[in-house]
Design brief:
240 residues, alpha/beta, Rossmann fold, 8 helices
Amino acid sequence: MSRKQLAPLIAIIGSDGSGKSTVGERLRTEVEAYGSVKTAHLGKQSGNIARSLARIPLIGNWFEGMIDRKTNKFKQSQSKNKTPSVFPSMVIFMFTLRRMWRFWRMLALRRHGFIIITDRYPQLDIPRAFDGPSLAINAQGNFLVRWLAKCEHKAFEWMTGYKPDLIIRLNVDLDTACARKPDHQRALLQNKIEITPQLKFEGSPIVEIDSAQSLDIVVEQAMKAVATILTERGYTVSKS
């Protein structure tokens, strides 16, 4: 089956706090009028896992402190264009493998005719930014780390080679994002908000939506764009 024969893929992207998951669930209900729909999360989800572990009684505070120290150290290595040491690189690559597995399962559903709505989508526009590769492919360092970086880059080349039929970009202001995600660091949210408009996703069609609006308006605007794409692909609303 060629890539053009795959069922449509709608990707929802944006900073944490932009409403991706909420909008995705509402869109799924609307799109079901056109055919069978499945949703998929294609982000790293490392932050969600870390925050869940940090809430464990007794050891949660210790774990949260360790995460902050490791995160700051990793950011410093990124700012200096250096790859992290072996163990952090292996952990990063394990998340990439997990992400590839979820991407492969999503493709299998498309081959079986399911319309796909994704929360996040891999990107190569800004390496080491969110939803992009975490390891610097051109950095110097340990042989194993450099090999893992090259493998990660190839994995992202494979995933980004499948262009979404439509990108729904949810733009949000910092105060709104912080209010929706009070457990997130403000500086990290600001960085993601600034990066979001720069992502091009290999030239995929993009609709821009201000997600600070009411949920009903956001879903209405998103569904209008989705309906246009589905109609162009030959889908019609079921009469049943």
